[in-house]
Specification:
heterodimer; A: 131 residues; mainly alpha; 2 domains; two-stranded antiparallel ribbon; 9% strand; elongated; B: alpha+beta; Cathepsin B, Chain A; six-stranded antiparallel β-sheet; 49% helix
Chain lengths: 131, 330
């Protein structure tokens, strides 16, 4: 049986935890071994940073009156459109409209409350959003 | 607190939870066994289904496959329930772990579990964990991918159990209620391995070894894509789906190889099992090399050699094809 290399690198995304994988011991038997992989670390960090990047871009768009704070909080909560639609229980074409500033301004408190609940924030944070 | 419960860490959440549950209720079964006899090894690439604007890629069968199939395969009975009412779900969980002293499995969303490291919290709704007790307002949680037990408040755990979106758990709870005595493992293993071979060798172009090649082709196309950010996200997305969701995709291959080794203890063709197990280990190793190359290219997009990366994936698919051709008529 071929020996499986178990990576013992650093993975800062796990806050000191180590996951396990199946590897082989000297006699070729499988067993669980703790590991940490820098490949996984990079992939995770890239995904997290992509959301940060989207948040930043969104702030620019909010300044220019294009996007709404809902879009900002969507990214902040690492959601995409289908996830957010499911969270607030609305059709995605509706949610998509709410991501635009001109439609966002017309929203009533009832709808805004749904979003606030979904993002676990106060409704004021949406209404009086400041960059 | 439940007597005699010991936390163990596993490579994959669902197979780990099912293995612990069955072992706790009197049927000793390892994680690779739980994974293998439910024919969970898989590959799916669906470019039309988007997650965060990225295609769906999965290295194992759908979530809940193990919980659902273990009943059929072993003849165990599992109590399974989803809820409409959040309060009822929480009350019932408390009753089960506090009064009846039962160990139970739950489906949750990773994003809402406060003990998860910040960088690991994404909207993945099919994370399985065990609850083994309660103290005050906190549940005692045995999360199979963590080194040690953790605690989680009633409020947070309930939020995680009722997260929305794809695979929404709807408070899904499960625990075995009946364990049969005479289990014919030889028969079960044969059937499970054949079933898995069939699904990996399916003619459907987006699944099994064909799906791997389809993904390889779509990676090859990245070479001419000028959108650097998209290419970087695509490559790391592939790696995340492979290495992180549950255990690594390489990891799932090793898990299956371990299962085939364990199957040698029964009346099956040992040479075939050995050969296939070695091939699948090779496939797992090749997939890890593939992940490494994806990440290296994502770091330096200008050095991207998409052809080279896609060829590694094709190589892995060839190992798997060979292995499952051997296993097809075990």
């Amino acid at each position: 049986m071929k020996k499986i290399e178990v990576p013992q690198e650093n993975n800062s995304t796990l806050n000191g935890q180590r996951k396990v994988m199946y590897g082989t011991n000297e006699s070729g038997e499988f067993q669980r071994i703790n590991y940490a992989s820098s490949v996984e670390e990079f992939a995770t960090i890239t995904a997290v940073e992509e959301y940060h990047e989207l948040e930043k871009e969104c702030l620019e768009e909010i300044k220019n009156d294009i996007s709404s704070p809902i879009k900002y909080f969507m990214y902040k909560n690492r959601m995409d459109l289908p996830t957010l639609s499911s969270v607030v229980d609305m059709f995605s074409f509706r949610v998509k409209r709410h991501l635009k500033m001109k439609h966002f301004r017309k929203l009533n408190d009832k709808i805004l409350q749904k979003y606030a609940l979904g993002f676990n924030i106060k409704i004021e944070e949406l209404k009086d959003f400041k960059i | 607190m439940i007597d005699g419960f010991k936390h163990s860490q596993f490579a994959h959440c669902e197979s780990g939870v099912v293995s612990t549950l069955l072992t706790h209720y009197g049927l000793k079964i390892s994680e690779p066994m739980a994974f293998g006899i439910t024919s969970t090894l898989s590959f799916v690439f669906l470019p039309i289904v988007k997650l965060n604007n990225m295609p769906l890629i999965a290295y194992r069968d759908l979530p809940k496959n193990i919980v659902k199939n273990i009943e059929k395969v072993l003849g165990v009975k599992v109590f399974k329930k989803q809820y409409k009412d959040i309060l009822e779900a929480n009350l019932e969980l408390t009753r089960l772990v506090e009064d009846e002293k039962k160990l139970v499995g739950l489906q949750t969303s990773v994003f809402y579990l406060p003990y998860m490291p910040e960088n690991m919290r994404f909207h993945f709704n099919a994370h399985n964990l065990l609850v083994y007790g309660k103290s005050g307002k906190n549940y005692k949680v045995s999360d199979p991918v963590f080194e040690d037990v953790v605690e989680c408040s009633e409020k947070d755990l309930t939020t995680a159990r009722f997260a929305k979106g794809v695979f929404s758990p709807k408070g899904f709870i499960y625990y075995p209620t009946y364990i049969p005595t005479n289990i014919d493992y030889t028969f079960i293993l044969k059937k499970a391995i054949r079933k898995n071979a069939k699904s990996m060798l399916t003619p459907f172009p987006f699944a099994g070894v064909k799906g791997m090649r389809r993904l390889a082709k779509s990676i090859e196309k990245l070479q001419n894509n000028k959108d650097v950010r998209y290419v970087k996200n695509y490559l790391t997305h592939v790696v995340r789906m492979q290495e992180e969701i549950g255990t690594g995709g390489g990891g799932f291959r090793f898990l299956y190889a371990a299962f085939l080794q364990e199957a040698k203890a029964y009346e099956l063709d040992k040479d075939k099992l050995q050969k296939a197990s070695e091939l699948i280990t090779e496939a797992g190793d090749t997939l890890r090399l593939f992940a490494l190359k994806c990440v290296e290219s994502a770091k330096k997009i200008e050095k991207l050699n998409a052809k080279e990366i896609s060829e590694i994936l094709v190589k892995a698919s060839i190992f798997e094809e060979e292995a499952f051709k051997i296993l097809k008529n075990i």
